[in-house]
Design goal:
This protein is mainly beta. It contains 2 helices and 12 strands. The strands form 2 sheets. The protein has a 7-stranded mixed barrel. The longest helix is centred in the last third of the chain and has 9 residues. The chain is globular.
Length: 191
């Protein structure tokens, strides 16, 4: 079964260290990369399908996002998820990013994923993606103790903020679950 790629994106996130300490046992304070591929819808019988593949929690040892075109990983790496009607697991055997052109990269991604779409398309099936993906930026999360300068400083501690600009700061959540207001800033590639 073949699906055309509708869009592909490469991005990263940096958790609030205070949140990680309090709610996540101090884990995942490093920069985590992800690759997401959305497919164009196809109709099979009476149903329309447009699966999404996501590879997340990739701890890539990069000093600058412009070096993403040097990524060549052999798996299993990260956490592979396939989404048709619900999230299902998978495994990535290879991910290569090449040929940077501005904020786009060529993505070559191979692996397997659990699928339950049609009787003829069920089980752990192989997939292969060749696509042009866009670097969407890096989200840096913080609390009400942080301002934009503090988030930029945290970003600079793990990767160069050169070739990135901040797109303001936003409130993510405030309420009883989180004793403090959570904020985030998106650092986008400079065009």
């Amino acid at each position: 079964m073949v699906f055309d790629v509708a869009s592909a994106e490469i991005g990263a996130g940096l958790s609030d260290p205070r949140w990680s300490d309090r709610y996540n046992g101090g884990r995942e304070k490093d920069l985590r990369w992800s690759v997401t591929v959305d497919t164009a819808p196809r109709v099979f019988g009476e149903e329309e399908w447009a699966p999404r593949l996501t590879l997340q929690n990739l701890p890539l040892p990069l000093t600058n996002w412009t070096r993403l075109d040097r990524v060549d990983l052999t798996g299993p790496v990260g956490e592979t998820l396939a989404y048709d009607w619900e999230h299902r697991g998978g495994e990535t055997s290879r991910l290569a990013l090449r040929a940077r052109d501005g904020d786009t990269f060529h993505i070559s991604w191979t692996g397997t994923c659990e699928v339950d779409m049609l009787p003829a398309c069920t089980g752990r099936l192989p997939f292969h993606v060749e696509a042009i993906g866009r670097f969407s930026g890096i989200a840096v999360y913080g609390s009400d103790r942080d301002d934009l300068a503090a988030l930029r400083t945290r970003l600079a501690a793990v990767i160069s903020p050169d070739n990135l600009h901040a797109d303001g700061m936003r409130v993510l959540a405030k309420g009883s679950l989180f004793q403090r207001r959570m904020v985030w800033a998106e650092f986008l590639p400079v065009a």
